[in-house]
């Protein structure tokens, strides 16, 4: 039940690595973009989560009270194994050190307000425990181009898709990101979610799956909102 405080992941061929950046992609599956009434982007839509949002298998997602709905987004996650700057898609594909199942937890009502106001998504996406991550598998043992992606809550499947429906593949996404950020070993890429996103409630058991990767199971519990006085 402990939150991963060290922000590390175990990467095949490298070992334990401290996570620098958590890159996330929005609207990378056309049907998910449609369910959110968003257009399909022509360049990748990138946002960041803090590494402190990471939490491992068997932990519980904290659902802050008083912020409205928190939604699940099951995603394929790639971990970067090399330093990349202005790299090609092919170089980026070769530089992936592993794949895992992840959840991009999203405070949907907070996000909706941010969208309306033209504000950034950092709050909606960045709470502690909002980036559950499973165990990584070496890239030679997994095909990221054709894998089923699904999520069950309390044994009922709610999300289902296939990575072949991604608008931009892993190599293209990393290449694009490498034109903005220098990518470093241990950086994570959450590649976007298929349709079927919805709310998570205290007591729910989530099982996130990508064919060929170890399933990621986490629970969920209510967490009292933290307050700070702002001068
Ligand atoms: Zn997402």
Structure description:
This protein is of the alpha+beta class. The protein has one domain (19-223): Alpha-Beta Complex (Fumarylacetoacetate hydrolase, domain 2), CATH 3.90.850.10. Helices cover 16% and strands 34% of the residues. The chain has five helices and 17 strands. It has helices at 30-35, 89-95, 108-117, 122-126, 170-178; strands at 8-11, 15-18, 22-26, 45-49, 54-55, 60-64, 70-72, 74-80, 96-103, 106-107, 131-132, 148-153, 156-162, 188-190, 198-199, 205-210, 216-223. A five-stranded mixed sheet has the order 4-3-14-8-9. Strands 6-17-16-12-13 form a five-stranded mixed sheet, with no helix packed on it. Strands 10-7-15 form a three-stranded antiparallel sheet. A hairpin with a 5-residue loop joins β16 and β17. The longest helix has 10 residues, at 108-117. The protein is globular. The model has no long low-confidence stretch (mean pLDDT 94).
């Amino acid at each position: 039940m402990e939150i991963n405080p060290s922000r590390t992941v175990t990467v095949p061929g490298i070992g334990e690595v401290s996570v620098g950046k958590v890159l996330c992609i929005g609207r990378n599956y056309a049907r998910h973009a449609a369910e959110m009434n968003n257009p399909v982007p022509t360049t990748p839509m990138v946002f960041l989560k803090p590494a402190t949002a990471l939490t491992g298998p068997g932990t519980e997602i904290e659902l802050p009270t008083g912020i409205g709905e928190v939604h699940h987004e099951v995603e394929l996650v790639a971990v970067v194994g090399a330093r990349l700057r202005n790299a090609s898609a092919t170089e980026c594909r070769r530089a992936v050190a592993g794949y895992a199942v992840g959840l991009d937890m999203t405070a949907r009502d907070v996000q909706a307000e941010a969208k309306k106001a033209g504000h950034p998504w950092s709050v909606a996406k960045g709470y502690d425990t909002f980036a559950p991550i499973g165990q990584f598998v070496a890239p030679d043992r997994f095909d990221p181009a054709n894998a089923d992606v699904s999520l069950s809550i309390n044994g009922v499947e709610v999300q289902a898709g296939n990575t072949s429906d991604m608008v931009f593949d892993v190599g293209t996404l990393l290449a694009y990101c490498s034109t903005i950020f220098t990518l470093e070993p241990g950086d994570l890429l959450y590649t976007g979610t298929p349709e079927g996103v919805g709310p998570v409630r205290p007591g729910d058991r989530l099982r996130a799956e990508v064919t060929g990767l170890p399933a990621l199971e986490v629970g969920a519990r209510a967490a009292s909102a933290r307050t700070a006085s702002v001068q």
